[in-house]
Amino acid sequence: MAVLAAHCQTALSVEQIVDRMQQHDARQSKELKHYEAVRHYQVQYKGLGAHLAAAMDVDLTYDSDTGKSFRIVSQSGSKLLCDKVLKRAVESEEEASKDKSSTALNETNYRFELAGTEQVDGRPAYVLKVEPLRKSKFLYRGRVYVDAADFAVTKIEVEPAQNPSFWISSSRIENINEKTDGMWLPEKNRSESKIRVGGSAVLTIDYGTYRITRAGETQPARSQSSRDVQSGAVANTESR
Q: DSSP per residue over the chain, as a string?
């Protein structure tokens, strides 16, 4: 607690915290030229006497000029869950990445309130309560944890501002970011959704190991999975 108090003793206002958070995001966006990773998606549904599961590996490429692109490397398990949950999760992120202004964590999209300070993975963080200023499937309400030293978002515990589907009655999302090669990037995500007809679905995303290129550096050769997997090509071992 002494370390936490030392880092947060300046008693910044919520406006100052949000401003420094946006400054951090702008610096990182300028410095981060390119990255690649292979993500692992997994979903489990329990309810109505059924237990279904599915998994998918996705090759992600981010480029500062063109944004994010996704290629499915493999999928297994329930075809229904692969099509209706995992593929839609990938498509939703790709759609959101095309319009960063509408999803940005700023005063245009959110109302902020300082809720206190906590430790996140041993580091002091400010806790902000966020409320969306409009309904959108890409916005959320809940708590955002901002690192007190770097002013990067380290964790979020939220629910969507608008349910992504009629069949979902509620969802809770937790996302953890970690500092990788000097950059704050997603590490893991867990979301649990209650289904209107009964049961619940838990989606987890492991973001894998990043290969990062900064501005001014030479972009590394693409990974083997990126070269070999053509758009739409999938190694598929499905069970119903």
A: -HHHHHHHTT---HHHHHHHHHHHHHHHHHHEEEEEEEEEEEEEEEETTEEEEEEEEEEEEEETTTEEEEEEEEEEE-HHHIIIIIHHHHHHHHHHHT-GGGT-SSTTTEEEEEEEEEEETTEEEEEEEEEESS--TT-EEEEEEEETTT--EEEEEEEESS-S-TTEEEEEEEEEEEEETTEEEEEEEEEEEEETTS-EEEEEEE----EEEETTSPPPPPPHHHHH--TT--EEEE--
Burial tier of 240 (Cβ tally within 10 Å: 0-12, 13-18, 19+): exposed
Predicted confidence at residue 169, as pLDDT, reads 78
Q: What is the pLDDT of residues 201-211, one digit of tens each?
A: 999 999 999 99
Average pLDDT over the chain, rounded to an integer? 87
Q: Give the position of tokens 């916005």.
A: 139
- Check pLDDT > 70 for residue 135: yes
Q: Which residues, in sequence order, are CB contacts of 123 under 8 Å at separation 6+? A: 147, 148, 149, 154
Tens of pLDDT, residue by residue over 70-120, are 999 999 999 999 999 999 999 999 988 888 888 999 999 999 999 999 999
